[in-house]
Design goal:
0% strand
Length: 254
Amino acid sequence: MTKHHNDAPADTLEELESVGERLAQWVGANPAVVLGIAGAILLGAASFGGYRAYSHSQADKASTSLARLHGEFVAAMGGKASEVEVPEPANPETAKAVRTEYADKYLTLAKEWSGTPTATLSLLGAGEIFAKLGNPDRALEVFLQASEQAPADSPIRAVIASRIGHLQEEKGDFEAAARSHETAAAVPGFPLHADALAQAARCWAEAGKPEQALAIYQRLKSEAPDLKLAPYVEARLQEIEARSSTSPAPAAQP
């Protein structure tokens, strides 16, 4: 029989907010990854001197355009253009109007640099704005488009997958969310690898897939034994583990 935890919604919300804060802190602490990945990838792909110079110039132009747009957005929201964090205006209508305007600008920039890392990052920016505007369906659509363009081994792919997972949770599609969190965890070098695994385990449990949840939980205990999970999440996974250990073994076939 499934146990009901009265504190589940609150604990789950705290867990999501905690991971979201750590994700934002990591992105903010790695501007070279977020704003400079375009140049790095394009330069790495260059093989000839003339093309290298051209791609270097284009990469610089692309990343500069994105950085300028971000600065304009921050300034329009009432902050300093040099700041990474986007402030929240006191007037909700101002915030809505500015976000609506800049969501379109990020999409336009993504179209202008279609097929480049800058387009991926522009889509990421647009998706974040749509989420803030309370339009999760549009945000998810844009994030999925960004995911298709992001290199499989890029930290940006992990960031996008994580955001997709949280939006899928909001829609109640926990199985899809679990897979998205697993995608984030599988990206080499992603600093929130353990957090992504924890989110995947929790989502598998919410999806009614205890075997998948248990497999990831046991892997998590091995790879990150010091990770502190939200009490509700920990209790839910421990319950699944205990139930599994007491389940009778299947009868042998004659």
